[in-house]
Fold:
Amino acid sequence: MRPFFTLTGKLVRDARWSLIFSSGALFALGWLFVHVASLNETRILKTLSAAPGEKLRAFRWMRDMGLEDAPSSTAIMMAFWNHPFIVLVVAVWAIGRGAGAVGAEIERGSLDLVLSRPISRSAYLAAQALVATAGLLAIALSLAAGAAIGSWYNVLRTPPEWLALLRPALNLAALGFAVHGYTLLFSSMDLVRWRPTMIGSVLTLAGFIARVIALIPIFKDEAWRPWAERFSIFSLYNPVDAVTGREVYSFDVSVLAGLGAACVGLAFLVFATRDLPANG
Amino acid sequence: MTSALIVTENLSKFYAATPALRDVTLQVHRGEIFGLLGPNGSGKTTAIRILLGFLRPSSGRASVAGFDCWRRSVETRRLVSYMPGELRISGSMSGYGVLKFLSGLREGDGLDRAVAIAERVMKLDLGRKVRKYSTGMKQKLALAQAFADPTDVLILDEPTSALDPSARADVLQLIREARDQGQTIVFSGHVLSEIEAVCDRVAILRRGRLVHVEDMGARRRLRMLLARFGGDEPPPFPEELELSVRRAEGAAWLMEHRGELGPLLRWLAEVDVQDVAIGTEDLRGLYDQYHGPGAAEDGEEFPQ
Structure:
Protein backbone atom coordinates (compact mmCIF):
# COMPACT_ATOMS: atom_id res chain seq x y z
CA MET A 1 0.00 0.00 0.00
CA ARG A 2 2.94 2.35 0.46
CA PRO A 3 3.21 3.19 -3.27
CA PHE A 4 -0.49 4.12 -3.27
CA PHE A 5 -0.12 6.44 -0.29
CA THR A 6 3.10 7.91 -1.68
CA LEU A 7 1.31 8.76 -4.90
CA THR A 8 -1.75 10.08 -3.09
CA GLY A 9 0.44 12.31 -0.94
CA LYS A 10 2.13 13.75 -4.01
CA LEU A 11 -1.20 14.41 -5.71
CA VAL A 12 -2.45 16.22 -2.62
CA ARG A 13 0.73 18.34 -2.54
CA ASP A 14 0.37 19.17 -6.23
CA ALA A 15 -3.28 20.15 -5.81
CA ARG A 16 -3.02 21.95 -2.49
CA TRP A 17 -3.04 25.54 -3.76
CA SER A 18 -6.04 25.13 -6.04
CA LEU A 19 -7.80 23.24 -3.24
CA ILE A 20 -7.07 25.98 -0.73
CA PHE A 21 -8.21 28.66 -3.15
CA SER A 22 -11.42 26.82 -4.11
CA SER A 23 -12.30 25.96 -0.51
CA GLY A 24 -11.49 29.47 0.66
CA ALA A 25 -13.63 31.03 -2.07
CA LEU A 26 -16.63 28.85 -1.24
CA PHE A 27 -16.19 29.36 2.49
CA ALA A 28 -16.35 33.11 1.87
CA LEU A 29 -19.38 32.71 -0.40
CA GLY A 30 -21.15 30.57 2.19
CA TRP A 31 -20.63 33.33 4.71
CA LEU A 32 -21.69 36.03 2.23
CA PHE A 33 -24.91 34.25 1.35
CA VAL A 34 -25.87 34.04 5.02
CA HIS A 35 -25.31 37.76 5.23
CA VAL A 36 -27.37 38.42 2.10
CA ALA A 37 -30.13 36.12 3.32
CA SER A 38 -30.24 37.87 6.70
CA LEU A 39 -30.54 41.27 5.01
CA ASN A 40 -33.29 40.21 2.60
CA GLU A 41 -35.18 37.62 4.58
CA THR A 42 -38.15 39.81 5.38
CA ARG A 43 -38.50 41.04 1.80
CA ILE A 44 -38.28 37.50 0.41
CA LEU A 45 -40.93 36.25 2.81
CA LYS A 46 -43.18 39.14 1.87
CA THR A 47 -42.73 38.39 -1.83
CA LEU A 48 -43.52 34.73 -1.34
CA SER A 49 -46.66 35.35 0.67
CA ALA A 50 -47.94 38.07 -1.67
CA ALA A 51 -47.14 36.40 -4.89
CA PRO A 52 -49.89 33.84 -5.65
CA GLY A 53 -51.77 35.01 -8.68
CA GLU A 54 -49.12 37.50 -9.59
CA LYS A 55 -46.57 37.02 -12.37
CA LEU A 56 -43.54 38.20 -10.54
CA ARG A 57 -40.24 36.97 -11.92
CA ALA A 58 -38.69 36.87 -8.51
CA PHE A 59 -41.52 34.78 -7.21
CA ARG A 60 -41.22 32.29 -10.07
CA TRP A 61 -37.48 32.07 -9.63
CA MET A 62 -37.84 31.37 -5.94
CA ARG A 63 -40.56 28.79 -6.60
CA ASP A 64 -38.31 27.13 -9.17
CA MET A 65 -35.55 26.94 -6.61
CA GLY A 66 -37.99 24.95 -4.44
CA LEU A 67 -39.02 27.67 -2.02
CA GLU A 68 -42.55 27.28 -0.68
CA ASP A 69 -44.59 29.61 1.45
CA ALA A 70 -42.93 30.60 4.69
CA PRO A 71 -39.63 28.89 4.11
CA SER A 72 -36.99 28.59 6.81
CA SER A 73 -33.97 30.87 6.80
CA THR A 74 -31.87 27.91 5.73
CA ALA A 75 -34.08 27.26 2.70
CA ILE A 76 -33.82 30.90 1.68
CA MET A 77 -30.07 30.72 2.10
CA MET A 78 -29.98 27.57 -0.03
CA ALA A 79 -31.59 29.38 -2.95
CA PHE A 80 -28.35 31.34 -3.18
CA TRP A 81 -26.36 28.11 -3.41
CA ASN A 82 -27.56 27.86 -7.00
CA HIS A 83 -25.26 30.78 -7.79
CA PRO A 84 -23.20 30.06 -10.95
CA PHE A 85 -19.94 30.91 -9.17
CA ILE A 86 -20.41 28.01 -6.76
CA VAL A 87 -21.05 25.65 -9.64
CA LEU A 88 -18.11 27.15 -11.53
CA VAL A 89 -15.63 26.56 -8.69
CA VAL A 90 -16.76 22.96 -8.27
CA ALA A 91 -16.75 22.33 -12.03
CA VAL A 92 -13.26 23.80 -12.47
CA TRP A 93 -11.88 21.54 -9.76
CA ALA A 94 -13.72 18.46 -11.08
CA ILE A 95 -12.73 19.04 -14.71
CA GLY A 96 -9.17 20.01 -13.84
CA ARG A 97 -8.56 16.91 -11.74
CA GLY A 98 -10.28 14.67 -14.28
CA ALA A 99 -8.46 15.98 -17.34
CA GLY A 100 -5.17 16.07 -15.46
CA ALA A 101 -5.33 12.47 -14.29
CA VAL A 102 -4.22 10.69 -17.47
CA GLY A 103 -4.21 12.84 -20.62
CA ALA A 104 -2.14 15.61 -19.08
CA GLU A 105 0.31 13.18 -17.46
CA ILE A 106 0.91 11.45 -20.80
CA GLU A 107 1.32 14.80 -22.52
CA ARG A 108 3.85 15.92 -19.90
CA GLY A 109 5.66 12.58 -19.99
CA SER A 110 5.42 12.16 -16.22
CA LEU A 111 3.15 9.11 -16.36
CA ASP A 112 6.05 6.97 -17.63
CA LEU A 113 8.11 7.63 -14.56
CA VAL A 114 5.29 6.77 -12.14
CA LEU A 115 3.99 3.72 -13.96
CA SER A 116 7.48 2.31 -14.49
CA ARG A 117 7.43 1.66 -10.73
CA PRO A 118 5.50 -1.35 -9.36
CA ILE A 119 2.15 0.39 -9.05
CA SER A 120 -0.88 -0.87 -10.95
CA ARG A 121 -2.82 1.32 -13.29
CA SER A 122 -5.90 0.75 -11.11
CA ALA A 123 -4.04 1.99 -8.04
CA TYR A 124 -2.81 4.99 -9.99
CA LEU A 125 -6.32 5.95 -11.11
CA ALA A 126 -7.75 5.18 -7.67
CA ALA A 127 -5.30 7.66 -6.13
CA GLN A 128 -6.33 10.29 -8.69
CA ALA A 129 -10.05 9.68 -8.11
CA LEU A 130 -9.59 9.64 -4.33
CA VAL A 131 -7.84 13.01 -4.27
CA ALA A 132 -10.40 14.54 -6.64
CA THR A 133 -13.35 13.22 -4.61
CA ALA A 134 -11.86 14.20 -1.28
CA GLY A 135 -11.20 17.63 -2.74
CA LEU A 136 -14.81 17.93 -3.88
CA LEU A 137 -16.02 17.03 -0.41
CA ALA A 138 -13.63 19.53 1.14
CA ILE A 139 -14.78 22.30 -1.20
CA ALA A 140 -18.47 21.54 -0.63
CA LEU A 141 -17.99 21.30 3.13
CA SER A 142 -16.17 24.64 3.08
CA LEU A 143 -19.31 26.19 1.66
CA ALA A 144 -21.34 24.60 4.45
CA ALA A 145 -18.77 25.67 7.03
CA GLY A 146 -18.88 29.24 5.73
CA ALA A 147 -22.67 29.21 6.08
CA ALA A 148 -22.58 27.65 9.54
CA ILE A 149 -19.99 30.04 10.91
CA GLY A 150 -21.60 32.98 9.11
CA SER A 151 -24.89 32.24 10.87
CA TRP A 152 -23.20 33.01 14.21
CA TYR A 153 -22.47 36.52 13.10
CA ASN A 154 -25.70 37.28 11.20
CA VAL A 155 -29.21 37.45 12.51
CA LEU A 156 -31.51 34.89 10.94
CA ARG A 157 -35.12 34.13 11.73
CA THR A 158 -34.38 30.39 12.01
CA PRO A 159 -30.62 29.78 12.18
CA PRO A 160 -29.49 26.63 10.34
CA GLU A 161 -28.51 23.46 12.09
CA TRP A 162 -25.04 22.30 11.22
CA LEU A 163 -26.15 18.88 10.13
CA ALA A 164 -28.85 20.32 7.87
CA LEU A 165 -26.13 22.06 5.86
CA LEU A 166 -24.36 18.78 5.16
CA ARG A 167 -27.18 17.58 2.89
CA PRO A 168 -26.91 20.35 0.26
CA ALA A 169 -23.12 20.19 0.57
CA LEU A 170 -23.29 16.50 -0.29
CA ASN A 171 -25.56 17.31 -3.23
CA LEU A 172 -22.98 19.80 -4.48
CA ALA A 173 -20.13 17.29 -4.05
CA ALA A 174 -22.18 14.67 -5.91
CA LEU A 175 -22.70 17.13 -8.77
CA GLY A 176 -18.94 17.68 -8.90
CA PHE A 177 -18.31 13.94 -8.75
CA ALA A 178 -20.49 13.40 -11.82
CA VAL A 179 -18.62 16.14 -13.70
CA HIS A 180 -15.31 14.66 -12.57
CA GLY A 181 -16.44 11.18 -13.62
CA TYR A 182 -17.16 11.96 -17.25
CA THR A 183 -14.10 14.17 -17.59
CA LEU A 184 -11.92 11.40 -16.12
CA LEU A 185 -13.45 8.95 -18.58
CA PHE A 186 -12.46 11.10 -21.53
CA SER A 187 -9.05 11.75 -20.01
CA SER A 188 -8.42 8.03 -19.58
CA MET A 189 -8.78 7.61 -23.35
CA ASP A 190 -6.64 10.57 -24.33
CA LEU A 191 -3.03 11.65 -24.78
CA VAL A 192 -3.41 15.35 -24.05
CA ARG A 193 -5.01 17.64 -21.48
CA TRP A 194 -6.86 20.07 -23.71
CA ARG A 195 -9.29 17.61 -25.27
CA PRO A 196 -10.83 16.12 -22.12
CA THR A 197 -10.85 19.62 -20.62
CA MET A 198 -12.76 20.90 -23.62
CA ILE A 199 -15.20 17.97 -23.71
CA GLY A 200 -15.80 18.14 -19.96
CA SER A 201 -16.34 21.90 -20.12
CA VAL A 202 -18.68 21.74 -23.11
CA LEU A 203 -20.79 18.98 -21.53
CA THR A 204 -20.97 20.84 -18.23
CA LEU A 205 -21.75 24.17 -19.83
CA ALA A 206 -24.38 22.58 -22.09
CA GLY A 207 -26.01 21.01 -19.03
CA PHE A 208 -25.98 24.32 -17.21
CA ILE A 209 -27.46 26.19 -20.17
CA ALA A 210 -30.15 23.52 -20.61
CA ARG A 211 -31.10 23.94 -16.96
CA VAL A 212 -31.23 27.74 -17.22
CA ILE A 213 -33.33 27.60 -20.40
CA ALA A 214 -35.69 25.13 -18.77
CA LEU A 215 -36.20 27.60 -15.93
CA ILE A 216 -37.03 30.58 -18.15
CA PRO A 217 -40.75 31.32 -17.59
CA ILE A 218 -41.67 31.86 -21.26
CA PHE A 219 -40.56 28.28 -22.07
CA LYS A 220 -42.60 26.79 -19.23
CA ASP A 221 -45.25 25.23 -21.50
CA GLU A 222 -42.92 24.14 -24.30
CA ALA A 223 -42.97 20.42 -25.14
CA TRP A 224 -39.16 20.18 -25.12
CA ARG A 225 -38.78 21.70 -21.68
CA PRO A 226 -38.90 18.38 -19.76
CA TRP A 227 -36.21 17.03 -22.10
CA ALA A 228 -33.98 19.99 -21.43
CA GLU A 229 -34.48 19.33 -17.72
CA ARG A 230 -33.64 15.64 -18.06
CA PHE A 231 -30.59 16.34 -20.20
CA SER A 232 -29.05 18.53 -17.55
CA ILE A 233 -27.31 17.06 -14.51
CA PHE A 234 -27.89 20.45 -12.90
CA SER A 235 -31.57 19.57 -12.51
CA LEU A 236 -30.33 17.07 -9.91
CA TYR A 237 -28.64 19.79 -7.88
CA ASN A 238 -31.37 21.21 -5.64
CA PRO A 239 -29.96 22.63 -2.42
CA VAL A 240 -33.36 23.95 -1.30
CA ASP A 241 -34.88 20.47 -1.61
CA ALA A 242 -31.94 19.14 0.37
CA VAL A 243 -32.85 21.23 3.42
CA THR A 244 -36.62 21.05 3.07
CA GLY A 245 -36.39 17.29 3.33
CA ARG A 246 -38.09 16.41 0.06
CA GLU A 247 -37.64 12.80 -1.02
CA VAL A 248 -36.25 13.94 -4.34
CA TYR A 249 -33.00 14.80 -2.55
CA SER A 250 -31.96 11.17 -2.12
CA PHE A 251 -32.82 10.50 -5.75
CA ASP A 252 -30.76 13.48 -6.91
CA VAL A 253 -27.68 12.52 -4.92
CA SER A 254 -27.96 8.86 -5.87
CA VAL A 255 -28.24 9.56 -9.59
CA LEU A 256 -25.35 12.04 -9.54
CA ALA A 257 -23.15 9.71 -7.50
CA GLY A 258 -24.18 6.76 -9.67
CA LEU A 259 -23.36 8.65 -12.86
CA GLY A 260 -19.99 9.65 -11.47
CA ALA A 261 -19.23 6.14 -10.21
CA ALA A 262 -20.23 4.58 -13.54
CA CYS A 263 -17.97 6.96 -15.45
CA VAL A 264 -15.08 6.41 -13.02
CA GLY A 265 -15.60 2.64 -13.35
CA LEU A 266 -15.51 2.90 -17.13
CA ALA A 267 -12.39 5.05 -16.87
CA PHE A 268 -10.70 2.27 -14.84
CA LEU A 269 -11.63 -0.25 -17.52
CA VAL A 270 -10.39 1.93 -20.38
CA PHE A 271 -7.16 2.91 -18.61
CA ALA A 272 -6.32 -0.65 -17.57
CA THR A 273 -6.58 -1.98 -21.10
CA ARG A 274 -5.27 0.84 -23.26
CA ASP A 275 -1.83 1.40 -24.72
CA LEU A 276 0.31 4.12 -23.21
CA PRO A 277 2.41 5.42 -26.08
CA ALA A 278 5.35 7.74 -25.61
CA ASN A 279 4.44 11.40 -25.60
CA GLY A 280 5.23 13.47 -28.64
CA MET B 1 25.24 -15.65 -18.27
CA THR B 2 23.30 -18.73 -17.46
CA SER B 3 19.67 -18.12 -18.29
CA ALA B 4 17.45 -15.79 -20.22
CA LEU B 5 15.87 -13.17 -17.98
CA ILE B 6 14.10 -11.21 -20.69
CA VAL B 7 12.47 -13.15 -23.50
CA THR B 8 10.52 -11.95 -26.50
CA GLU B 9 8.90 -14.39 -28.89
CA ASN B 10 7.67 -13.23 -32.29
CA LEU B 11 6.86 -9.90 -30.71
CA SER B 12 4.96 -7.50 -32.96
CA LYS B 13 3.24 -4.20 -32.39
CA PHE B 14 1.09 -2.42 -34.93
CA TYR B 15 -0.50 1.01 -34.63
CA ALA B 16 -3.54 0.50 -36.86
CA ALA B 17 -1.84 -0.88 -39.97
CA THR B 18 1.53 0.71 -39.24
CA PRO B 19 4.10 -1.73 -37.90
CA ALA B 20 6.26 -0.46 -35.03
CA LEU B 21 7.78 -3.83 -34.17
CA ARG B 22 7.72 -6.94 -36.31
CA ASP B 23 8.29 -10.50 -35.23
CA VAL B 24 11.12 -9.80 -32.80
CA THR B 25 12.50 -12.84 -31.01
CA LEU B 26 15.40 -12.36 -28.64
CA GLN B 27 16.71 -13.32 -25.24
CA VAL B 28 18.60 -11.19 -22.77
CA HIS B 29 20.61 -13.22 -20.33
CA ARG B 30 20.90 -12.65 -16.61
CA GLY B 31 23.87 -10.43 -15.81
CA GLU B 32 24.59 -9.07 -19.27
CA ILE B 33 24.55 -5.59 -20.72
CA PHE B 34 22.38 -5.70 -23.78
CA GLY B 35 22.45 -2.82 -26.22
CA LEU B 36 19.58 -1.73 -28.43
CA LEU B 37 20.67 0.14 -31.52
CA GLY B 38 18.75 1.73 -34.33
CA PRO B 39 17.70 5.13 -35.60
CA ASN B 40 14.55 6.89 -34.45
CA GLY B 41 11.50 4.86 -35.43
CA SER B 42 13.38 1.58 -35.54
CA GLY B 43 11.33 0.09 -32.70
CA LYS B 44 13.63 0.48 -29.67
CA THR B 45 11.20 2.56 -27.66
CA THR B 46 8.28 0.33 -28.62
CA ALA B 47 10.20 -2.72 -27.41
CA ILE B 48 11.04 -1.03 -24.12
CA ARG B 49 7.46 0.11 -23.59
CA ILE B 50 6.20 -3.42 -24.17
CA LEU B 51 8.68 -4.70 -21.58
CA LEU B 52 7.35 -2.13 -19.09
CA GLY B 53 3.74 -3.14 -19.77
CA PHE B 54 2.85 0.24 -21.30
CA LEU B 55 1.92 -1.32 -24.63
CA ARG B 56 0.02 -4.51 -25.36
CA PRO B 57 1.72 -6.61 -28.03
CA SER B 58 -0.29 -7.07 -31.22
CA SER B 59 1.08 -10.61 -31.39
CA GLY B 60 3.78 -12.65 -29.73
CA ARG B 61 4.81 -12.19 -26.13
CA ALA B 62 7.40 -10.61 -23.90
CA SER B 63 8.34 -11.72 -20.42
CA VAL B 64 10.73 -10.80 -17.62
CA ALA B 65 11.75 -13.63 -15.30
CA GLY B 66 8.78 -15.58 -16.62
CA PHE B 67 6.22 -12.84 -15.91
CA ASP B 68 4.25 -11.80 -18.95
CA CYS B 69 4.94 -8.10 -19.40
CA TRP B 70 1.32 -7.25 -20.20
CA ARG B 71 -0.69 -9.62 -18.01
CA ARG B 72 1.67 -9.53 -15.01
CA SER B 73 2.81 -5.98 -15.49
CA VAL B 74 3.15 -5.04 -11.81
CA GLU B 75 5.26 -8.12 -11.03
CA THR B 76 7.40 -7.30 -14.06
CA ARG B 77 7.94 -3.72 -12.97
CA ARG B 78 8.85 -4.88 -9.49
CA LEU B 79 11.87 -6.49 -11.15
CA VAL B 80 12.64 -3.65 -13.51
CA SER B 81 14.02 -0.19 -12.98
CA TYR B 82 13.57 2.23 -15.86
CA MET B 83 15.28 5.47 -16.67
CA PRO B 84 13.47 7.47 -19.33
CA GLY B 85 15.46 9.64 -21.69
CA GLU B 86 14.34 12.74 -19.84
CA LEU B 87 13.11 13.24 -16.28
CA ARG B 88 9.71 14.92 -16.44
CA ILE B 89 8.32 15.55 -13.02
CA SER B 90 6.86 18.37 -11.00
CA GLY B 91 9.47 21.12 -10.79
CA SER B 92 8.19 22.20 -7.39
CA MET B 93 9.83 19.19 -5.73
CA SER B 94 13.40 19.24 -4.49
CA GLY B 95 15.91 16.73 -5.79
CA TYR B 96 15.60 14.85 -2.51
CA GLY B 97 11.81 15.02 -2.77
CA VAL B 98 11.92 13.37 -6.20
CA LEU B 99 14.17 10.56 -4.94
CA LYS B 100 11.93 10.06 -1.90
CA PHE B 101 8.82 10.02 -4.07
CA LEU B 102 10.28 7.54 -6.57
CA SER B 103 11.63 5.22 -3.88
CA GLY B 104 8.29 5.48 -2.07
CA LEU B 105 6.66 4.08 -5.19
CA ARG B 106 8.94 1.07 -4.68
CA GLU B 107 8.14 0.50 -0.99
CA GLY B 108 10.86 2.92 0.05
CA ASP B 109 13.70 0.74 -1.17
CA GLY B 110 16.87 2.33 -2.40
CA LEU B 111 16.46 5.86 -1.04
CA ASP B 112 19.73 5.93 0.90
CA ARG B 113 21.67 4.51 -2.01
CA ALA B 114 19.99 6.93 -4.44
CA VAL B 115 20.94 9.87 -2.23
CA ALA B 116 24.52 8.58 -1.99
CA ILE B 117 24.85 8.20 -5.77
CA ALA B 118 23.23 11.57 -6.43
CA GLU B 119 25.46 13.43 -3.98
CA ARG B 120 28.78 11.61 -4.28
CA VAL B 121 28.86 10.42 -7.88
CA MET B 122 26.54 12.85 -9.63
CA LYS B 123 27.51 15.81 -7.41
CA LEU B 124 23.93 17.05 -7.18
CA ASP B 125 22.55 19.52 -4.67
CA LEU B 126 19.46 17.62 -3.58
CA GLY B 127 18.07 20.57 -1.63
CA ARG B 128 17.42 22.57 -4.82
CA LYS B 129 14.08 22.58 -6.57
CA VAL B 130 14.05 20.42 -9.67
CA ARG B 131 12.84 23.37 -11.76
CA LYS B 132 16.24 24.94 -11.14
CA TYR B 133 18.08 21.87 -12.41
CA SER B 134 19.54 21.83 -15.90
CA THR B 135 18.51 19.03 -18.28
CA GLY B 136 21.73 17.21 -17.50
CA MET B 137 21.18 17.49 -13.75
CA LYS B 138 17.68 16.07 -14.13
CA GLN B 139 19.10 13.18 -16.08
CA LYS B 140 21.66 12.57 -13.34
CA LEU B 141 18.89 12.55 -10.76
CA ALA B 142 16.93 9.95 -12.73
CA LEU B 143 20.08 7.89 -13.15
CA ALA B 144 20.83 8.01 -9.43
CA GLN B 145 17.40 6.58 -8.73
CA ALA B 146 17.65 3.95 -11.45
CA PHE B 147 21.03 2.68 -10.26
CA ALA B 148 19.82 2.63 -6.66
CA ASP B 149 16.74 0.51 -7.31
CA PRO B 150 17.28 -3.01 -6.01
CA THR B 151 15.98 -4.67 -9.16
CA ASP B 152 17.13 -7.50 -11.39
CA VAL B 153 16.79 -5.49 -14.59
CA LEU B 154 17.80 -1.94 -15.42
CA ILE B 155 16.41 -0.38 -18.59
CA LEU B 156 18.23 2.76 -19.65
CA ASP B 157 16.81 4.80 -22.49
CA GLU B 158 19.51 7.13 -23.83
CA PRO B 159 21.00 7.54 -20.37
CA THR B 160 23.80 9.91 -21.36
CA SER B 161 22.12 12.13 -23.93
CA ALA B 162 22.33 15.30 -21.80
CA LEU B 163 25.52 14.58 -19.88
CA ASP B 164 28.99 16.09 -20.10
CA PRO B 165 31.92 13.78 -20.99
CA SER B 166 33.08 13.13 -17.43
CA ALA B 167 29.57 12.35 -16.26
CA ARG B 168 29.19 9.99 -19.21
CA ALA B 169 32.26 8.10 -18.07
CA ASP B 170 30.82 7.87 -14.55
CA VAL B 171 27.57 6.48 -15.92
CA LEU B 172 29.35 3.87 -18.02
CA GLN B 173 31.28 2.84 -14.91
CA LEU B 174 28.03 2.58 -12.92
CA ILE B 175 26.60 0.40 -15.67
CA ARG B 176 29.58 -1.95 -15.45
CA GLU B 177 29.30 -2.06 -11.65
CA ALA B 178 25.60 -2.85 -11.89
CA ARG B 179 26.41 -5.73 -14.23
CA ASP B 180 29.13 -6.95 -11.89
CA GLN B 181 26.60 -6.97 -9.04
CA GLY B 182 24.36 -9.25 -11.07
CA GLN B 183 21.95 -6.80 -12.64
CA THR B 184 20.87 -7.18 -16.24
CA ILE B 185 20.99 -3.97 -18.20
CA VAL B 186 19.15 -3.04 -21.36
CA PHE B 187 20.90 -0.02 -22.81
CA SER B 188 19.15 1.83 -25.62
CA GLY B 189 21.15 4.60 -27.21
CA HIS B 190 22.56 6.33 -30.25
CA VAL B 191 26.15 6.84 -29.13
CA LEU B 192 27.88 3.88 -30.73
CA SER B 193 31.13 4.30 -28.83
CA GLU B 194 29.32 4.02 -25.49
CA ILE B 195 27.35 0.98 -26.54
CA GLU B 196 30.55 -0.57 -27.81
CA ALA B 197 32.39 0.24 -24.59
CA VAL B 198 30.02 -1.48 -22.18
CA CYS B 199 27.68 -3.88 -23.96
CA ASP B 200 28.11 -7.64 -24.00
CA ARG B 201 25.68 -8.03 -26.88
CA VAL B 202 24.00 -5.57 -29.19
CA ALA B 203 20.76 -5.90 -31.14
CA ILE B 204 20.29 -3.77 -34.21
CA LEU B 205 16.74 -2.86 -35.13
CA ARG B 206 15.60 -1.53 -38.44
CA ARG B 207 12.04 -0.47 -39.22
CA GLY B 208 10.72 -2.62 -36.41
CA ARG B 209 12.66 -5.72 -37.32
CA LEU B 210 15.53 -7.27 -35.43
CA VAL B 211 18.15 -7.50 -38.15
CA HIS B 212 21.27 -8.45 -36.22
CA VAL B 213 22.48 -9.49 -32.78
CA GLU B 214 26.19 -9.02 -32.26
CA ASP B 215 28.29 -10.67 -29.59
CA MET B 216 30.57 -7.81 -28.56
CA GLY B 217 33.11 -10.15 -27.03
CA ALA B 218 33.59 -11.78 -30.41
CA ARG B 219 33.55 -8.40 -32.08
CA ARG B 220 36.38 -7.17 -29.89
CA ARG B 221 38.41 -10.12 -31.21
CA LEU B 222 37.42 -9.31 -34.79
CA ARG B 223 40.28 -8.35 -37.13
CA MET B 224 39.69 -6.78 -40.49
CA LEU B 225 42.17 -7.86 -43.10
CA LEU B 226 42.74 -5.90 -46.29
CA ALA B 227 45.04 -7.95 -48.51
CA ARG B 228 46.26 -8.05 -52.09
CA PHE B 229 47.18 -11.58 -53.22
CA GLY B 230 49.33 -12.82 -56.07
CA GLY B 231 46.44 -14.26 -58.11
CA ASP B 232 43.04 -12.88 -59.05
CA GLU B 233 41.44 -14.45 -56.01
CA PRO B 234 42.66 -15.21 -52.50
CA PRO B 235 44.08 -18.69 -51.96
CA PRO B 236 41.74 -21.17 -50.25
CA PHE B 237 41.50 -20.60 -46.48
CA PRO B 238 42.49 -23.36 -44.09
CA GLU B 239 39.43 -24.64 -42.23
CA GLU B 240 40.84 -23.79 -38.82
CA LEU B 241 40.89 -20.08 -39.71
CA GLU B 242 37.65 -18.20 -39.00
CA LEU B 243 38.17 -16.11 -42.09
CA SER B 244 35.48 -14.87 -44.46
CA VAL B 245 35.44 -12.47 -47.38
CA ARG B 246 33.33 -9.41 -46.91
CA ARG B 247 33.95 -7.81 -50.29
CA ALA B 248 36.49 -7.23 -53.02
CA GLU B 249 37.86 -3.73 -53.50
CA GLY B 250 39.57 -3.84 -56.89
CA ALA B 251 42.42 -6.28 -56.59
CA ALA B 252 42.28 -6.05 -52.82
CA TRP B 253 40.14 -8.29 -50.67
CA LEU B 254 38.49 -7.17 -47.48
CA MET B 255 38.14 -10.08 -45.08
CA GLU B 256 37.14 -10.51 -41.47
CA HIS B 257 38.80 -12.83 -39.04
CA ARG B 258 37.23 -13.77 -35.69
CA GLY B 259 39.75 -16.24 -34.34
CA GLU B 260 43.21 -16.06 -32.78
CA LEU B 261 45.71 -13.86 -34.57
CA GLY B 262 48.64 -16.36 -34.56
CA PRO B 263 47.26 -18.90 -37.09
CA LEU B 264 46.23 -16.04 -39.37
CA LEU B 265 49.71 -14.56 -39.37
CA ARG B 266 51.25 -17.97 -40.00
CA TRP B 267 48.90 -18.52 -42.94
CA LEU B 268 49.71 -15.10 -44.38
CA ALA B 269 53.41 -15.95 -44.19
CA GLU B 270 52.82 -19.06 -46.28
CA VAL B 271 50.65 -17.65 -49.10
CA ASP B 272 51.52 -15.25 -51.94
CA VAL B 273 50.41 -11.98 -50.39
CA GLN B 274 51.70 -8.72 -51.90
CA ASP B 275 50.24 -6.26 -49.43
CA VAL B 276 48.34 -6.58 -46.19
CA ALA B 277 46.81 -4.36 -43.53
CA ILE B 278 45.25 -5.69 -40.34
CA GLY B 279 43.03 -3.63 -38.11
CA THR B 280 39.90 -3.65 -36.01
CA GLU B 281 36.42 -2.47 -36.89
CA ASP B 282 34.30 -0.42 -34.56
CA LEU B 283 30.55 -0.75 -34.18
CA ARG B 284 30.01 1.93 -36.80
CA GLY B 285 31.02 -0.50 -39.54
CA LEU B 286 28.43 -3.02 -38.42
CA TYR B 287 25.78 -0.36 -37.88
CA ASP B 288 26.35 1.08 -41.34
CA GLN B 289 25.69 -2.28 -42.91
CA TYR B 290 22.09 -1.83 -41.81
CA HIS B 291 21.64 1.89 -41.57
CA GLY B 292 24.46 3.48 -43.52
CA PRO B 293 24.47 4.65 -47.14
CA GLY B 294 23.92 1.70 -49.46
CA ALA B 295 22.38 -0.48 -46.74
CA ALA B 296 20.01 -3.13 -48.04
CA GLU B 297 16.45 -1.97 -48.65
CA ASP B 298 13.48 -3.82 -47.22
CA GLY B 299 13.06 -7.14 -48.95
CA GLU B 300 16.77 -7.47 -49.76
CA GLU B 301 18.96 -9.87 -47.86
CA PHE B 302 21.00 -8.31 -45.06
CA PRO B 303 24.62 -9.34 -44.69
CA GLN B 304 25.08 -11.86 -41.91
Summary: The longest helix of chain A spans residues 2-50. Residues 66 and 246 of chain A are 10 Å apart (CA to CA).
